[in-house]
Every structure is written in C-alpha cells, then in structure tokens.
Fold this sequence. Notes:
The protein is an alpha/beta fold. Helix content is about 45%, strand content about 15%. The radius of gyration is 17 Å and the shape is globular.
Amino acid sequence: MRTKLIAGNWKMNGSLADNEQLCKAILAGMNASQTAGVAVCAPAVYLSQLQNLLSGTAIALGSQDISSHEKGAFTGELSAAMLKEFGVRYAIVGHSERRQYHGETDTSVALKAKAALAAGITPIVCVGESLAERESGKTEEVVKRQLAAVIHENGHCISEIVVAYEPVWAIGTGKTATPEMAQAVHAVLRAQLHAASSVAAERVQILYGGSMNAANAASLLSMADIDGGLIGGAALKAADFLTIIAAAN
Ligand code: PEP
C-alpha cells in the first residue's frame, strides 16, 4: 500500500514573514496521527529559512528545480549537493512552467532527475499535456514520451522517483481534470512504470496537480492510482492546504 504525498509548490511566492506564518499555521493544524507525507517546495532563497523552521517536523522540504550538473560554470544553477546541504528531500523537475519558459526538454528533465537521485533527493517528475494536445487526442502519447525519457536515464532506480501528472490546461486556471480523467492518465503511467519494473509500479507515488483545492481534493484522492497531490495556489493558504492534507489521510 502506497502512502499518499501532499506537496506544495509555492512557485515564486513568499517572503521571510509570510513563510514563517504559513509554516507555523500548517504545523499547528496538522494531525499527529496523519499517515500522508507532506512537503513544501519553496523558492531557493528561502531554503535555509525553511530548513530551520521545518527540521524535526513532519513537513519535508523541497526545491522547485535542480541542476543536472555536479558543479562548475553554470551561472544561476543549484547542484543537488548544495540543495542537500539545506535539507532538501524532494526536487520538482520538469514543471510545465520550466518546460515552457526555460526551454527544458524531456532529456534535460531526465538528467535533472538523475542528478537528484544520485544525491539521495527524490525527484518529483512532472508530466502533462497542453490543451491543444488533449483536444487532438495526444494526452497518452505526450505523457508517455515525457516519462519514457526519465525511465530511459534512470531505469535502475526508477522506483525511487515520484511522478506528478499535471495537465497544463489545469494549472492555475481553476479547471481541474475530473477524478475519472485524472485516474485514466494515472493508470497509463502506472502501466508504463510496470513495464519498466513491477517494483516501481507498486512503489512510485503518482500525484495529481492542476487546481487541486480544498473542495475537490477528496474525490481526486479517492481514485485508485492517485497517490497524492502537487498543489500550487491552494498550498499558499494554510486552511486549504490542511484540508487537502486531511483528505489524504
Ligand atoms: C502547480 O503549479 O504545480 C499547480 C498544480 O498549480 P495549481 O494548483 O495552482 O494549479
């Protein structure tokens, strides 16, 4: 049985004061007996602050990106070893905003996942189709191509990743995939993992992301292959994030 994971993606939001308030409110509202894992993926400049706020708590720390390179002349990038020093346990890789605005490709995303795994950081690998791709019946082809690149580079340790299915048309738009639509894609991803490794199919958590919120979380999380959520907007409001965490327990 896979435990669920609720991960907040704060994107480019927050401040020292807001982060402290948000973390304290989430920690105060979390149930001691909860089974779901919880993580927040924060802007890199705040990782040190959050390491201090969250160490020893039930909230794990995540980054929103990671370099595929070990070290050297890569201005602006952050290596897995650096992130590890700040207590980072998860790294989002291949978020659609990075694919769209920073030219990340299936191959570069796969190499980022590889760098994370080598350092003992769990990559949260994002896959998902655009509206045009869904409307032209290409959803399955797109998500399988994106995940195939990651499996190709990381076959031997593929059971150590987390996958997030995030239909691009549902991110930040308020349009959510129905539980049935999301489950259908999750089942495709599960089958693809199974073809690579039965252990991976059993272990890998496949999260749904895309306007998951306090109102729709329970129905999405009740689906057989939805093992948690990657939450954007609703992760910035303690009460909403806590409702989603409670729905995962
Ligand atoms: C995201 O950016 O990963 C995301 C799911 O955003 P939102 O929940 O705001 O749609």
